[in-house]
Each structure stands twice: as structure tokens, then as C-alpha cells.
Specification:
Blueprint (H helix, E strand, L loop, with lengths): L1 H18 L3 E6 L7 H15 L4 E6 L4 H10 L4 E5 H9 L11 E17 L14 E3 L6 H10 L10 E3 L3 H9 L5 E6 L4 H9 L2 E3 L5 H9 L4 E5 L11 E13 L4 H12 L2 H7 L21 H9 L4
Parallel strand pairs: 1-2, 1-3, 5-6, 5-7
Antiparallel strand pairs: 3-10, 4-7, 4-8, 4-10, 9-10
Helix pairs in contact: 2-10, 6-7, 9-11
Length: 313
């Protein structure tokens, strides 16, 4: 009897262990000088700590949106942060993607990302058209940042033939800009961005506005881009709000992620947002009521289940 009881207890413990088995996930974020990397780390830390042992998430640096969609497609990572417009382009096989990447499923919208268009004071550039003939960092090749440059440049008469495009991630862009090796750059990123804060502390810059009829055309052609503005005094020397455009950062996972895992991930995220915000200020911009904003790719069934429980259509 004692032996049987012992076996029953061991079996019970084994089953309990299975019920709370830890699922290990790899989370692709972005470059170390951007917002994706530290915010992704904050999300990974919170989900791991608050999931009651169900999740163990490791955040890793990456080339951001474009690369992240490919990493999800190949199965090299389980989850990633991506711009909403890049996710749509990849899912539907639009440029710069040559084929449809349809393994990603959305969990939620996270926060808005503003297009920062910045020039050196010495360049004399005050409008987008002024970049002709200048050295401009457009972001890493294939990134969401570079895609946004392709989307907006043509409207202002710019192409990679009449500017000198430099393909660099945020950190290297900041260093070359401070060393006067660049005339300008475009960052699609949340505010305030540490790299831009560092630049504006070291030197005076010109924030280039995106406004007028050209912007109206862009918004019509690319519905993912919406009229917005960088709030006044976000950066040193930037006393007025800067008219610009924004996209949305979203969280995606592999379609192969089990429904219960995606549900736990979604539930844990939205029920512990204060912890994310404590770890990174961008966490304060994540909200349940805006979780579906700007998302055009399919939601994961696990996320959809959670939203349905919350009465969201």
C-alpha cells in the first residue's frame, strides 16, 4: 500500500510538473541603440517572471522588422517586434519582399513609431527636397526604417540615385552623424530615442518637417502611415512640435505557437503592463483598448481568445 501510495504521489507530481511545464521562447527585437531591444527585454523579463513558470523568454538583438519577419518565417525565433507596415508587406509579398512570408501571427499593437528626419545644421537642409546630393542614412537594408524611406522619398522627388544612401543601423548612424560623415538620417522609432538624445546633446541639428500636400499623398498611398507629430521638447533644442508620420510597433509570434502558449503570453502581457512600464517607459504606451490598432495581418488564435474574453471585437 505504501509503495502504491508513493507511486501515486510521484505520478501526481509528474503530472503537475507537466501542467506547469516551462515553454522556452526566443524573441527577436532590434538594434541595441533602438527602442525594440530594451523594450523587448522588458517584455521578456515580465512575461518570464509573471507567467507562473509557464514561459521563459530570451530577447536577442536583430536587424529589426524586415529581418524579424524572415526569422519568424524560417522558424529561427518564436516571437518578434515588427512595424505594422513591414508585417503587412511581408505577409502579402509586397516590396521589398520577393515572396509572401505568412508564418507570422499578431499578438498586439504596442506603441506608435515616429519618422524622425534629421539634418546637420551645416548641411543647410531645411526641407525634404534639400537632401538631393546629400549623404543620408536610410537604415539597415531591408529594415522597416528603409522601407519607410522608400515610401516617402519619391513624393519629395528623392531617389537612391539623387541622394547618397547610406545603409546603417541606428547606433552606427549616430556615430557617423556626430563625426560629420553624414548630412542627415531617417529613424522610424519611438520617442525619446537615446541615440538622437545623445546627438542633440552634442550638437545642434535641424528636424525636417513632413507636411503639406506631399504628406496627404503618402497617407493615401500608404494607409499604415498616419499624420502625427513629435511632441515639443522631446529633444534638446527642439522647442516646437515637428509634423511627421508614424507607424505602429506590433508584437508577432509564429503561427506554429500552440494556442495555449499564445493565450498565456497575451494574458500575461496585458495583465502586467505596469511591470513592463517600470522596466521601460514605452511600456506605458501599451494598452488593451488599442491592442488591435493598425494590425492587418491575422491574429494568433490564442491572442484572439484573450481579446474575446475581454469583450473586444
Amino acid at each position: 500500500m505504501k509503495k502504491l501510495l508513493g507511486l501515486m504521489i510521484m505520478a501526481g507530481l509528474f503530472c503537475a510538473g507537466l501542467a506547469h511545464a516551462e515553454t522556452r521562447l526566443t524573441f527577436a527585437t532590434g538594434g541595441t541603440s533602438g527602442v525594440y531591444f530594451p523594450l523587448g527585454g522588458a517584455i521578456a523579463q515580465t512575461l518570464t517572471a509573471k507567467s507562473n513558470g509557464a514561459l521563459a523568454i530570451t530577447a536577442q538583438a536583430s536587424g529589426a522588422s524586415g529581418e524579424n519577419m524572415r526569422l519568424i518565417e524560417s522558424g529561427d525565433v518564436n516571437m518578434a517586434m515588427v512595424q505594422n507596415d513591414v508585417a503587412d508587406a511581408a505577409f502579402n509579398g509586397k516590396a521589398p519582399f520577393k515572396e509572401k512570408l505568412q508564418n507570422a501571427r499578431a499578438i498586439a499593437r504596442l506603441y506608435p513609431e515616429y519618422l524622425h528626419v534629421v539634418a546637420t545644421k551645416d548641411s543647410g537642409v531645411k526641407t525634404m527636397e534639400g537632401f538631393k546630393g546629400k549623404k543620408v542614412s536610410v537604415g539597415a537594408r531591408g529594415s522597416g526604417n528603409e522601407l519607410n524611406c522608400r515610401q516617402i522619398f519619391e513624393t519629395f522627388g528623392l531617389t537612391y540615385k539623387n541622394i547618397q544612401p547610406i545603409f546603417l543601423p541606428y547606433g552606427e548612424t549616430a556615430e557617423q552623424f556626430k563625426d560629420r560623415q553624414l548630412d542627415g538620417f531617417v529613424f522610424t522609432i519611438g520617442t525619446p530615442n537615446p541615440a538622437i538624445q545623445d546627438i542633440t546633446t552634442a550638437q545642434s541639428v535641424q528636424f525636417i518637417p513632413l507636411e503639406g500636400a506631399g504628406v496627404d499623398k503618402i497617407v493615401k498611398d500608404f494607409p499604415f502611415l498616419v499624420k502625427d507629430s513629435i511632441p515639443a521638447k522631446t529633444y534638446k533644442g527642439q522647442d516646437a512640435a515637428v509634423p511627421t508620420l508614424s507607424v505602429q510597433a506590433i508584437l508577432v509570434v509564429s503561427k506554429d505557437m500552440p494556442d495555449d502558449v499564445a493565450y498565456t503570453l497575451t494574458k500575461t502581457l496585458f495583465e502586467n503592463l505596469p511591470d513592463v512600464a517600470k522596466a521601460h517607459n514605452k511600456g506605458s504606451e501599451i494598452s488593451l483598448d488599442r491592442a488591435k490598432d493598425g494590425v492587418t495581418i491575422p491574429f494568433h488564435p490564442g491572442a484572439a481568445k484573450y481579446f474575446a474574453e475581454k469583450g473586444m471585437k
